Amino acid sequence: MAVEDRQFGEWLKGEIEGLVFIERNGFFVDQVTRVAKRLQSDRPAGERFEVLIPWSPVPTAFTAPGRYIYVNRRLLERCPSDEAVAFVVAHEIAHHDLEHLSSVHGPVTKVLTRLGLGALVLSAYRAVQVRLYGPQQECDADRHAMALCLAAGYDGYKCLRFFHVMELFALDYGDVDGVYGLDQDSDEELSRSADFMTRARIWLWQRQRGYLPIQDRAAEVRRFLEAA
Fold first, then answer.
1. Over the stretch 104-157, which tens digit does the pLDDT of each residue have?
2. Selected residue with higher pLDDT from 177 and 159
3. How many degrees, rounded to 5, is the angle at CA 103 between CA 97 and CA 106?
4. Taking a C-beta distance cutoff of 8 angstroms, is the pair 49, 71 a contact?
5. Rounded to whole angstroms, what are the CA distances from 35 to 87, 97, 204?
6. For the chain, which residues make up each domain, given as ranges?
7. How many CB atoms are closer than 10 A to CB 148?
8. Which of 168, 187, 152 shows the shortest CA–CA distance to 37?
9. Beta-carbon neighbour count of residue 33 at 10 Å?
10. How far is CA 225 from CA 115, 149, 150, 188, in A?
11. DSSP 118-132
12. Taking the model in full, what pTM does it have?
């Protein structure tokens, strides 16, 4: 891991700790520690990621250059099992493994640190990442996350329950499109056999949201799991 990445990771951690409460002990800390250890059992100790639990209002998970992964307490409260939590953590690890963060480091980290935009970190950083990653990279991270979970011995179908958790959050906020997309009957946006109109929806969604609907992401990971 590059020195610059570690330095930014420590800076970001300090900014977040100054903004919100970070849970240090209890059930959820034990859970994410247990899951992270199992997912990374084959990695050198110095290359493993640490999961932190911020008490921020938006249920989300994100990572950044450095060694930290952030999983919001509200998100953990809805996850029904270690498998769902494992998928969340593995998805963020996947962004590192697939080098998706290389596009984030230069343009984003330098601006944040130079201007001291700590107050925007929790509200804006994940949104910036979504725009930089795009739906294809998010789905690549989903598939890699499932591969990590399977390698760690987790039940892949139980891991898929994470997407149901995300559906519930989206519907709580009235974000029906975020769950179903432009076509509530379609979960084939990334299918190789998708027709022109379906692919056009991908293009439109990418520019509107920066990611695919939750049900489409879940369908793509399920296809990957069934082929594994």
1. 555 556 655 555 555 555 555 555 555 556 778 888 999 999 999 999 999 999
2. 159
3. 120
4. no
5. 9, 17, 36
6. 3-151, 175-227
7. 22
8. 152
9. 12
10. 43, 11, 9, 16
11. GGGHHHHHHHHHHHH
12. 0.85
